[in-house]
């Protein structure tokens, strides 16, 4: 029986439990692992353990969550994944693809380099350039470089800070930008793309879009499900499917959640999530991405 490590941080996470169930149903031994428990011994031999689990004994690894943060612990965990991968253990998604996707600036660069349409974007490191970018865009989004679940996203339109629920914030734009610059040391700014009041999350596995949903904010402009957004079934056009598959390939992910926005100039890719939740697709369509991921992995083994 194949032994598949499933990297997790939250045992109650829907996608985590679904991956474990899908693996068990395919006569695979799923082994939940929290890489925060990992240790490496380097001497005559190099050994990798997480508790009593010898990571070298795994036949493959699925990364649901390698753990957050931006310190040395995260670097260490991704070093472990790269080293296990170099030893011949398939890791999906690969540590390189997860890092590509997680860094929003770099992901946008990779997509644009491949001629995949993305919103006009500025990366800046001082307040004046940030204010100039906001003025040139008119309506702009400021995102944390390594944010997730829609947290820390801000919108400034014509110098007015707009909260996710659509209400206005009286904080002066320069004061807000100054605070963000002091905290983050650089700002990732994108033009806000006027849209039908929704965005699209497509779930890609291999070279196939297995399902897509519309995400709509109950009120305001931030559509993320974790921020209270609602879902509806979405049937993608062929062009949209091809865009999602190309985006996934460029990031290097074998499965991903690809976020599209429908602007007046056509579809654009907002983000690629290389550790996506499958809950939204399942609850909307009854499609279980975990089963597709396990099938895809078994084709490689």
- Tell me the number of structural domains: 3
> Biggest sheet, strands in spatial order?
8-13-9-10-11-12
Sheet with the most strands, sense and barrel status = 6 strands, antiparallel
CA-atom Rg in angstroms: 20 Å
Q: Can you tell me the overall shape? A: globular
Structural class: alpha+beta
Binned strand content: 25-35%
The total strand number stands at 18
**Helicity, as a percent range:** 25-40%
Helical segment tally? 9
User: What is the ordering of alpha helices and beta strands?
Assistant: EHEEEEEHEHHEHEEEEHEEEEHEEHH
Please report the distance between the alpha carbons of the first and last residues.
12 Å
CATH homologous superfamily identity of the largest domain:
ATP-grasp fold, B domain
What ranges have pLDDT less than 50 throughout 5 or more consecutive residues?
none
The second-level CATH architecture of the largest domain is: 2-Layer Sandwich
Explain the overall architecture.
One of its GO terms (molecular function) is ligase activity, forming carbon-nitrogen bonds. This is SSU ribosomal protein S6P modification protein. Its cofactor is Mg(2+); Mn(2+). Residues 108-298 form the ATP-grasp domain. It comes from Methanohalophilus mahii (strain ATCC 35705 / DSM 5219 / SLP). The protein has 301 residues and is an alpha+beta fold. The protein has 3 domains: 3-92, Rossmann fold (3-Layer(aba) Sandwich); 100-117 and 195-300, D-amino Acid Aminotransferase, Chain A, domain 1 (2-Layer Sandwich), CATH 3.30.470.20; 121-191, ATP-grasp fold, A domain (Dna Ligase, domain 1, 2-Layer Sandwich). The protein is built from 9 helices and 18 strands. It has helices spanning 14-25, 72-86, 95-102, 104-113, 127-137, 173-184, 238-251, 279-285, 289-300, and strands at 3-7, 29-33, 38-42, 46-50, 53-54, 60-63, 91-92, 121-124, 139-143, 154-157, 160-162, 168-169, 187-191, 199-205, 208-216, 230-233, 255-263, 266-273. It has a 6-stranded antiparallel β-sheet, with helices on both faces. A hairpin with a 2-residue loop joins strand 17 (255-263) and strand 18 (266-273). Helix 1 crosses helix 9 (289-300). The longest helix has 15 residues, at 72-86. The chain is globular and about 60 Å long. The termini are close together.
């Amino acid at each position: 029986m194949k032994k598949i490590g499933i990297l997790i941080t939250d045992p109650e996470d829907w996608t985590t439990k679904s991956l474990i169930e899908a693996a068990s149903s395919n006569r695979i031994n799923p082994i939940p692992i929290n890489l925060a428990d990992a240790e490496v011994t380097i001497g005559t031999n190099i050994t990798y353990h997480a508790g009593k689990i010898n990571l070298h004994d795994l036949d493959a690894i699925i990364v649901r969550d390698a753990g957050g943060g931006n310190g040395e612990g995260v670097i260490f965990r991704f070093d472990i994944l790269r080293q296990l991968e170099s030893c011949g253990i398939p890791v999906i998604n690969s540590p390189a693809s997860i890092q590509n996707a997680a860094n929003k600036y770099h992901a946008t660069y990779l997509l644009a380099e491949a001629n995949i349409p993305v919103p006009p974007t500025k990366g800046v490191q001082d307040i004046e350039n940030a204010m100039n970018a906001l003025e040139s865009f008119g309506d702009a989004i400021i995102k944390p470089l390594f944010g997730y679940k829609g947290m820390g996203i801000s919108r400034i339109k014509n110098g007015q800070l707009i909260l996710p629920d659509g209400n206005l914030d009286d904080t002066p734009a320069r004061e807000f930008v100054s605070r963000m610059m002091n905290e983050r040391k650089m700002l990732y700014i994108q033009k806000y793309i006027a849209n039908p009041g929704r965005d699209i999350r497509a779930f890609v596995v291999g070279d196939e879009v297995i399902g897509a949903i519309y995400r709509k904010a109950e009120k305001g402009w931030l559509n993320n499900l974790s921020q209270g957004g609602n879902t509806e079934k979405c049937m993608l056009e062929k062009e949209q499917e091809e865009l999602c598959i190309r985006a996934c390939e460029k990031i290097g992910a074998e499965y991903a959640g690809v976020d599209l926005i429908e602007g007046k100039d056509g579809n654009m890719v907002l983000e690629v999530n290389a550790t996506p939740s499958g809950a939204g697709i399942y609850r909307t369509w009854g499609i279980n991405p975990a089963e597709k991921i396990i099938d895809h992995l078994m084709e490689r083994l």
